[in-house]
Amino acid sequence: DTGVSQNPRHKITKRGQNVTFRCDPISEHNRLYWYRQTLGQGPEFLTYFQNEAQLEKSRLLSDRFSAERPKGSFSTLEIQRTEQGDSAMYLCASSSDRQQFFGPGTRLTVL
Amino acid sequence: GIQVEQSPPDLILQEGANSTLRCNFSDSVNNLQWFHQNPWGQLINLFYIPSGTKQNGRLSATTVATERYSLLYISSSQTTDSGVYFCAVDNFNAGGTSYGKLTFGQGTILTVHP
Fold this sequence. Notes:
The complex is a heterodimer of chains A (111) and B (114).
Chain A: E1 5-7, E2 10-13, E3 19-24, E4 31-37, E5 44-50, E6 53-57, E7 65-68, E8 75-79, E9 88-95, E10 101-102, E11 106-110
Parallel strand pairs in A: 2-11
Antiparallel strand pairs in A: 1-3, 3-8, 4-5, 4-9, 5-6, 7-8, 9-10, 9-11
Chain B: E1 4-7, E2 10-14, E3 19-25, E4 32-37, E5 43-48, E6 52-56, E7 59-64, E8 69-74, E9 83-90, E10 102-104, E11 108-113
Parallel strand pairs in B: 2-11
Antiparallel strand pairs in B: 1-3, 3-8, 4-5, 4-9, 6-7, 7-8, 9-10, 9-11
């Protein structure tokens, strides 16, 4: 069991650039979640996949954000035209039932 | 949406002390989990405990769903227990379908001194 992995671990970008993050869930998990965490706060839900189907999106997920899970395995989260307010830790979690296991996160800094 | 309140917000202990962290939630839940976020940001799942009591080593948790609270007990604390403890609940869907998206509390920051 290799756990949930995320890449890159850190990303520094300039405002207006596009960024893409990858999440590889635990292999037998069919559910995958993206969360965002800002300093001093708990994680906030962004979106959820069951297999390749995106079943729920938070209102936090503006139209600059898009997520995919094309073959029901890894997932990508893309942010277009980044803004300074997008600076945060982006966390991915996976589960086979209710208990969720998190990856180490990708820390995004937008300059 | 569901509200999750954790207390205390900060807790400072000497190594070896015991502590109790509390999580109150505003509505029915069918999923409650406790996490520890270490200083490197990694969230570790401690318990899945929608009701009842569980124990894992020095940690135990109790959820009283009918009264909408959960408690996390840490006994004989160690410096490695330092970090932020989060309670998270499932935003229960009254139609019976739960996607499992978690709503997190603000966390309790625990510092254990040697």
